[in-house]
Amino acid sequence: MVMAAEKKWFFTLFSAAFLSFIIFLSAISTFTSFNNFQTNTDVFTSSVQYGAHYPPSFAYYISGGRGEKDRIFRLLLAVYHPRNRYLLHLGSEASNEERSTLAVMIRGVSAIRAFGNVDVVGKPDPITYMGSSNIAATLHAAAILLKVDKSWDWFITLSALDYPLLTQDGVVEDRNVRCFGHSQWFISAYPGSGFVGGSPWVLLSRSFLEYCVLGWDNMPRTLLMYFTNVMLSQEGYFHSVICNSPEFKNMTVNNDLRYMVWDNPPKMEPRFLTATDYDQMVQSGAAFARQFEQDESVLSVIDKKILGRAPSRTTRGAWCTGPSRWWMDPCSKWGDVNILKPGPQAKRFMESMKSHLSDWNSGSNSCT
């Protein structure tokens, strides 16, 4: 009986390690295929600088399904900044034509063509909300982003139903506060017995994702094997890895940086936001809001009043130096991309972040 148990344990451990290895190899293979959709860097006129003396850089994983290419493109333009990296994923239910069209739309943006920091996954992963495919796709995306860019600091997951409530210059506005330093993980979670669960939408540090994907410890792979058999695994995997790791468990901040409104009693998803929610969204100090119907009118209000973004154009930041004319995109010309100009929501966001970090510094975290 003891030998049988040992064999079962070694088989589970080997399977977990093998699965992690497959994820990494798959990332390499997928990069080769989606690289055909990648925007090439033809002209590079501004040097992106990284390090402690410069703003942090974000890796955005933006996912959607069939019929959502236009929503993903609009979201990309809303959160675009030359300092960041972006990976767009249309699930396997979407057609190759949709992926190709999305790639063409991206190549039509001059800044993206020049900086070459946006990619589209060419071999898509299946995405099933209730199953484990979402967490597999997210880990796959993380492995790709770790491979293609060695400079980003934070990993952010967004879906086609999300939208930003501040400019990218505002997200990285105050380096001194260390809102997005290397010692906190923003992830909404609640304690459980051995496992921890919470929001499926996360902001994770690069070092933590390296621990999960490239890992020097078997624990992330062992938990991955467990969560492949758990419904809604994206609401528990990262949370449980963090809270079961001595290196990371005291470095969580219990917030997913999103404004959401739930029905009473709550359903599986928050309700769709409309213009009647605008004032509350603005006052929340959140970085993103969720969820919106396609072409919901309040998105245009956010574009105009918060992002300063015209239709089919990127959000204007300090890096944009072109004149603002109806016939010309001000971000079609650019200067120093390392200089920031916070938008109107930056102050509210920073106040919100200071509150969250104050709770973290007081010793109250999501794992205890």
UniProtKB/TrEMBL annotation:
The answer, when asked if Glycosyltransferase is one of the entry's keywords, is yes
Q: How does it sit in the membrane?
A: Single-pass type II membrane protein
Give the transmembrane ranges: none
Which InterPro entries does the entry mention? GLCAT14A/B/C (IPR044610), Glyco_trans_14 (IPR003406)
User: Does Transcription regulation count among this protein's keywords?
Assistant: no
Top-level taxon in the UniProt lineage = Eukaryota
Which cellular components does GO assign to this protein? membrane
| Molecular function in Gene Ontology | glucuronosyltransferase activity
- Report the locations given in the UniProt record: Membrane
Q: Which UniProt keywords apply?
A: Glycoprotein, Glycosyltransferase, Membrane, Transferase
UniProt name for this protein:
Uncharacterized protein
Organism of this sequence: Coptis chinensis
